[in-house]
Design brief:
50s Ribosomal Protein L5, Chain: A; globular; 5 helices; two-stranded antiparallel sheet
Length: about 130
């Protein structure tokens, strides 16, 4: 079973509704609550994320991030929340000024999940096994 946890800070200079909208642009069916200065919650799947990275043609970069951060049956990624406000995925560098959308993913067969969400490509085309 796939578990997707999301944490995102809301800074005093930010509108909480805009931050929520940014998160939902990547994870449209996420269930989120505003707690202790940020949003916390879960998403039932990575479907919205998968559609966006295909549309943006960033499968290789996404796959690299997910594989690089993989430890056992868990991985994580940091998504730039400012870029997410326009419905795009951009991976955040360490310690972004306004924070990032932090996503933790756990699955019994994580490699198969990554293969489905961010498959390998050859000349920009998905390679299916």
């Amino acid at each position: 079973m796939t578990s997707v946890s999301i944490v995102c800070p809301v800074n005093p200079s930010e509108d909480p509704e805009k931050v929520l909208s940014a998160i939902r642009s990547i994870f449209p069916d996420a269930e989120l609550e505003l707690r202790d200065g940020g949003y916390e919650g879960t998403a039932p799947s990575l479907d919205g994320f998968g559609r966006l990275i295909r549309r943006q043609k960033i499968l290789d970069a996404s796959r690299a991030v997910l594989l690089k951060n993989m430890h056992g049956n868990r991985t994580h990624m940091s998504i730039n929340k400012q870029v997410a406000t326009v419905g795009k995925v951009s991976f955040a560098d360490r310690n972004p000024v306004l924070g990032a959308i932090e996503v933790r993913i756990e699955d019994d067969d994580l490699e198969a999940l990554i293969d489905r969400v961010a498959p390998m490509t050859v000349d920009g085309e998905e390679v299916r096994a």
